[in-house]
Amino acid sequence: MEAFLATPVGILALTVAQAMALLVPLLIGVAYLTWAERKILGAMQMRKGPNVVGPFGLLQPFADALKMLMKETIIPSGASRALFLMAPMITFMLAMLAWAVIPVNDGWAIADINVGILYLFAISSLGVYGIIIAGWASNSKYAFLGALRSAAQMVSYEVSMGFVIVTVLLCVGSLNLTEIVRAQSTVWFIIPLFPMFVIMFISALAETNRAPFDLPEGESELVAGFFVEYSSMSFALFFLGEYANMILMSALITILFLGGWLPPMAMEPFTWIPGPVWFILKICFCLFVFVWVRATFPRYRYDQLMRLGWKVFLPFSLVWLIITAAALKIFGWLPAVG
Amino acid sequence: MIAAAAFYLFAAVLIASAVMVVTSRNPVHSVLFLILAFFNAAALFLLAGAEFLAMILVIVYVGAVAVLFLFVVMMLDVDFSALREGFQRYAPVGGAVGLVLFAELVFVFGSWSFADDVGGLRLNPTPEGVDNTRAIGRILYTDHVWLFQLSGLILLVAMIGAIVLTLRGRPASKRQDIGAQVARSGSVNLRQVRPGAGLGEIGIERPPVEAPKPVKQVEHHGHDHGGHH
Question: Secretion signal: which residues (chain A) (predicted)?
């Protein structure tokens, strides 16, 4: 067995098995995130949510998936066929691809690469392509307007997200995600860097096109925005990709600010629970806040969205970056490098 | 062996997509092929062990620059038949320019020679025991810090220039002053109101209702109804 795993075929088989072990729970998680979102929204709006299919409506996601599969894939006339079909695949693939570097526990990453956080940032910045290609290839004005909004929005919020990540990196001294979590063993970064956590969370909402920044979809003005022309599985891929991205962003926030797999305190009752469970619990907390925000706030106006990104978050995160750097230098807290 | 095969694969796709950037008819497809080319270049960086450069290439060029390219190109309304119209007339000039450029390239590569010690540095970007993010940092922020800052300054000047050239103050456009809105008090507030209270009871004045316009009397053909009889 050991000898087989050392051969190229063995390494390949092991990697595929690891990827499956991560992706299958992830996809089930995505399915139940849609269910949980409807349940939480229902509870917050004093109604029941899905409760017919299966006990507590637990089989609802599968019923929905089956319904999607049965429907016809419609390709609008005048659409750019290949690109039209490629766009949802890109969205879905990117949402899965990023998980390669996420450390679920100490040393439990499929690829524990040195530039893990840059890889995550790169993949999340590519997410805009699925949307913009979908908008253009649909040959529809609503889809195109949704795509333009989305492109501008995602590029804007990436900038302040980049500064937040740089601030965290200053405190860690490494681009490796495992190192970032290990650096939080004394104190989670949410405590010293709380304002950055808030900016990161709001930017994550904007980056995943969630309410109150769901202007690319904007049902009330753009019908459904960039995916208005999509049906059946191609629509389902967009849908799954969006929810997988939510989980991904929650994982990123967990790693950067909430101490990844670390328990709240390195004490007896907390250390009984294994690391991955803490990791999943923290992700669930972030997802709950995502849904909570959706149930609470009305949609932003587009110019307000741009103002918030460029005129509030960008200067603020820049100033906080400089303050952090200065504090680390003055008090001699800079991490040992090299 | 696998690394070599991967290198040739990425290099071949890179060159093929670069050719497609120039030759494809639809400008949006051109930009998409450009993105594919960027990706393959990043993959080549990875193979060479420069993972930091690879990620930065993807983040900056694919994640930001190419998005804006795509943004602009998608909104262009290009008439392709009009573009092709003068092809016969302009072909000789274009061909001559191409020939000159090609000759220059031949001269450059003909006289190109590597320094003696450069062979050891090729495809070996990092010193021993240092990952290449730190290696780049060490060089960039020590030996070449002035050049680094200068290039940043040039970009800043370019950005300010672009803003100065395109920003026009339009007095007619409406603006929202968020500060003033947040700072105002008294005009919007919450209060507890007894259910069923009328507006007058809680002290809200109704907006003055305009006096209804006098209804124009429909003119009859004659006031004297009994006229026909």
Answer: none
Task: Write down the pLDDT at residue A274.
Answer: 84
Using CB atoms and an 8 Å cut-off, which of residues 63-102 of chain A contact chain B? 83
- In a domain? residue A338: no
Confirm whether A75 is domain-assigned. Answer: no
Residue of A nearest to B1 (CA): A8
**CA–CA separation, B54 vs A123, rounded Å?**
12
* Domain residue ranges of chain B, discontinuous segments joined by +: 1-80, 130-164
Q: pLDDT tens for residues B64-87?
A: 888 888 888 887 766 666 666 777
Q: Which two tokens stand for residue B91?
A: 């072909």
Query: Which of B59, B71, B133 is opposite residue A122, by nearest beta carbon?
Result: B59
A101 & A212 share domain: yes
Domains in chain A: how many in total?
Answer: 2
With 0-12 CB in 10 A as exposed, 13-18 as middle and 19+ as buried, what is A280?
Answer: middle
Collect all residues with Cβ–Cβ distance below 8 Å to A167 and sequence separation of at least 6: A193, A196, A317, A320, A321, A324
**Whole-structure pTM value:** 0.81
Number of alpha helices (DSSP H) and beta strands (DSSP E) in chain A: 14, 0
pLDDT at position B97 is 94
The residue whose two tokens read 């809105």 is B181
> pLDDT for A135-168, tens place per residue?
888 888 888 888 888 888 888 888 889 999 999 9
Determine which of B55, B133, B174 to mutate to test the interface with A (most A C-beta atoms within 10 Å).
B55
Determine the residue type at A259: G
Count of Cβ atoms closer than 10 Å to residue B10 Cβ: 19
Distance from CA of B144 to the nearest CA of A (A): 20
Angstrom distance (rounded) from CA A86 to CA A90: 6
CA dihedral A254, A197, A267, A274 (to 10 degrees): -10
Domain that holds residue A324: 80-331
Instruction: Give the position of tokens 């991205």.
Output: A245
CA distance A274 to A285: 17
The answer to whether residues A57 and A100 belong to one domain is no
Q: Which of B28, B59, B70 is facing A121, going by the closest CB pair?
A: B59
Residue B75: list chain A partners with CB under 8 A.
148
For A236-247, write each residue's pLDDT tens digit.
888 888 899 899
CATH architecture of B1-80: Up-down Bundle (1.20)
Q: Render each residue's pLDDT in chain B as its tens digit; 229 residues.
A: 788 899 999 999 999 999 998 888 788 888 889 999 999 999 998 888 788 889 899 988 888 888 888 888 887 766 666 666 777 788 888 899 999 999 999 988 888 777 777 766 665 656 667 777 888 888 888 888 999 999 999 999 999 999 999 888 777 777 777 788 777 776 666 777 777 777 777 776 666 667 666 666 665 554 545 444 4
> Across the interface, which of A136, A307, A338 has its CB nearest the CB of B28?
A136
Give the number of residues written for chain B: 229
